[in-house]
Amino acid sequence: MKTLTIAANSLRRLFRDRSNIFFVFVLPIVLILVLGLVFGSGFISRVAVVVPAGDEQARELFDEIASSTAFETVESSDEDDARQRLRRNDIDAVIVIPADYGERLEGGGQVEIGYFATASAGGIDVQAVVDAAVVKQGSKIRAARFATEAIGADPATALATSDALEAELPSVGVVVEGDTLSDAAGPADANAAQQLLLFMFLTALTSSTALIQSRRLGVSERMFSTPTTAGTIIGGETLGRFLVVMLQGVFIVLMAAVLFDISWGDPLGAMLVVSAFALTGTGAGMLLGSTFSTEQQASGIAIFGALMLAALGGSMVPLEIFPDSMVAIAHLTPHAWGNDAFSELILHGAGVPDIALELTVLTLYGLTLVAIAAVIFRRRLTH
After folding, report:
1. Does residue 358 contact residue 375 with C-beta atoms inside 8 Å?
2. Long-range interactions of 299-305: CB distance < 8 A, separation 24+
3. How far is it, in rounded angstroms, from Cα 168 to Cα 347?
4. What is the rounded average pLDDT for all residues in the chain?
5. For residue 120, what are the domain limits?
6. Same structural domain for residues 126 and 220?
7. Which residues pair with 47 in a beta bridge?
8. 337 vs 168, which has greater pLDDT?
9. pLDDT in tens, 84-125
10. What is the C-alpha end-to-end distance of the chain, expressed in Å?
11. Proportion of the chain above pLDDT 90, given as a percent
12. What is the dihedral of CA 248, 240, 198, 333, to 10 degrees?
């Protein structure tokens, strides 16, 4: 009962400051909403293609580009207007087919196609589709030129023959086996998991200032002067911080699912990851609060450390874009293991057995940090 009472007092002290309610509950939901709007599955790039009138080759290239479902294609006849719309961010990319495109190709010349894109991921991704369309048309043109040079065929006739033969060639089928992405998962779901881990760890570290405040005001020492053991005090303080972080984690998971339709994968697996990561964050927060003497010292280290570990562990930039050496370094942080677990649950539809390694590592992280913090905190109380 004493342990629960100490934990309850820790919760009351934390939420007595109304600003903590904003940072623990409101800010994470707002950030998940913003990231969902920016990177959510409803976003699709818009591409303007400047097509010269009456040019069959240019029209064929446009049709090939427009057949892609990766973005929305808009035909334009004015390059200046299209590029002005790009500057206003009305579109994400502009493709300019020169006015003499077909004539130069049929005459054996080379043509430069203009490509202009914004710095957004959508505009850059369009280039791969455009390159594929140009390569497809270019293969037919190269075949026609080869026939012209080898047997002296008429260029126009050779190109028509190349078009006809291309339609008769057998297609190549590609079958993907192994892991596939869950149909219910989207970019917003993965981003929500990353932000969940970032805020849980940030809250765990910043709540360490309440532990320092208890020591500085003599609250912990006065409890120790009563018939209360050091283990009871340490257990109560640890439980209080764990409940704060766990409460925040569960709140974010539920609100994100209800308000934004975020999929967390297997519910039991998600709750186990949240619990294991909350334990890790609690241990780190207790260690910080037991080590430093003033709230100012701890708060500065808490914010810097939480953001640095989040960035390194894949909660700001996905681990998939890290080089192999950085991925290995990232897995020194608990965030990387948490992100791996949520990636399996959300993107690959995994269950609890599939994330057993991640859960084990996170639990060991938490127990080790709590044990070290308990030793240091006990020395603070008894000396």
Report:
1. no
2. 299/206, 299/209, 301/205, 302/202, 302/205, 302/206, 302/208, 302/209, 303/202, 303/205, 303/206, 305/205
3. 39
4. 82
5. 45-168
6. no
7. 73, 93
8. 337
9. 988 888 888 889 998 888 888 777 677 888 888 876 545 556
10. 26
11. 26
12. -140
CATH number, domain containing residue 92 = 3.40.1710.10
Last residue within a domain, chosen from 111, 141, 168 = 168
- The per-residue pLDDT for range 147-163, each reduced to its tens digit, is 777 887 776 677 777 77
Whole-number Å distance between alpha carbons of 73 and 69: 9
Q: Per-residue DSSP letters for 277-293? A: HHHHHHHHHHHHHHH-S
Residues 157, 121 share a domain: yes
User: Does 365 map to a domain?
Assistant: yes
Alpha-carbon distance 72 to 92, whole Å? 10
- Position of tokens 């649950």? 345
Enter the tokens of residue 204.
């765990």
Instruction: Provide the token pair at 166.
Output: 């291309």
Q: Which of these, 24, 365, 256, lies nearest to 265 by C-alpha position?
A: 256
- Could you give the number of structural domains in the chain? 2
